[in-house]
Design goal:
The protein is 65% helix and 0% strand. The chain folds into 2 domains: 55 residues, Arc Repressor Mutant, subunit A (Orthogonal Bundle); 135 residues, Tetracycline Repressor, domain 2 (Orthogonal Bundle), CATH 1.10.357.10. With 217 residues, the chain is an all-alpha fold.
């Protein structure tokens, strides 16, 4: 009879996420996680396969906390809105992990559950196959991209820096040469991120709805 495991997967995932949140992804390693758990690094190889396994574990820990309504909304458009905002609210709480979510694709259950439910909502618009894939990529790309913009600076930045630093540089650019950049930097400094996210999501849903085949929800 095999010996019982010392840690549960949830314990490992929670500890790995806490470490990433507190010290950043560069601090995440088998050794640092083992130290946090009070065990040796070799013990963790019974649970995860090195760095790749740790990164997948962290993403799983983030997505697991998304609180979706138990039942889907009657209208597919509303379901897309609800799922998208729940997912965004969840991942933006962990800005250190967002770049990892952009770079990696995982097949853990929480991520698959979100994907399946979002795909089901989009399929109710009459999409299938390639059209369903494109719609899914559009929605998930918007969610993660918006969170990435908050976590690591805006896309018009060439020098990098925090989002606030980039916005401030944008506001001080020569207005005669970059009037629109200055305009959106000023709007960003004065705006509310949740309102911006919902406004962008409304544009996206309106576009998806315009080409939906069913006449009703």
């Amino acid at each position: 009879m095999p010996a019982s495991k010392k840690f549960s997967r949830d314990q490992l995932a929670s500890a790995a996420l806490d470490l990433a949140d507190e010290k950043g992804l560069d601090a995440l390693s088998m050794r640092s996680l083992a130290a946090r758990l009070g065990t040796g690094p070799m013990t963790l190889y019974n649970y995860v396969d090195g760095r790749d396994g740790l990164e997948s574990l962290v993403i799983e820990a983030v997505v697991r906390h998304a609180a979706y309504p138990p039942e889907p909304a009657a209208d597919w458009r509303e379901e897309v809105r609800i799922l998208a905002e729940c997912y965004w609210v969840t991942i933006r709480r962990h800005p250190q992990v967002v770049p990892l979510m952009v770079a990696r694709r995982t097949t853990d259950e929480p991520t698959l559950d979100f994907g399946e439910r979002m795909l089901e909502a989009l399929a109710r618009s009459g999409r299938s196959g390639r059209d369903l894939l494109v719609a899914f990529r559009l929605v998930t790309g918007f969610i993660v991209g918006f969170a990435q913009g908050e976590a690591g600076g805006e896309t018009f930045s060439l020098a990098g820096g925090s989002a606030d630093e980039v916005i401030e540089r944008g506001r001080t650019l020569p207005a005669e040469r970059y009037p629109r950049v200055v305009e959106i930097a000023t709007a960003s400094a004065q705006g509310d991120r949740a309102e911006e996210f919902r406004a962008g999501l409304e544009l996206l849903v309106a576009g998806l709805s315009a080409e939906a085949r069913p006449a009703s929800a």
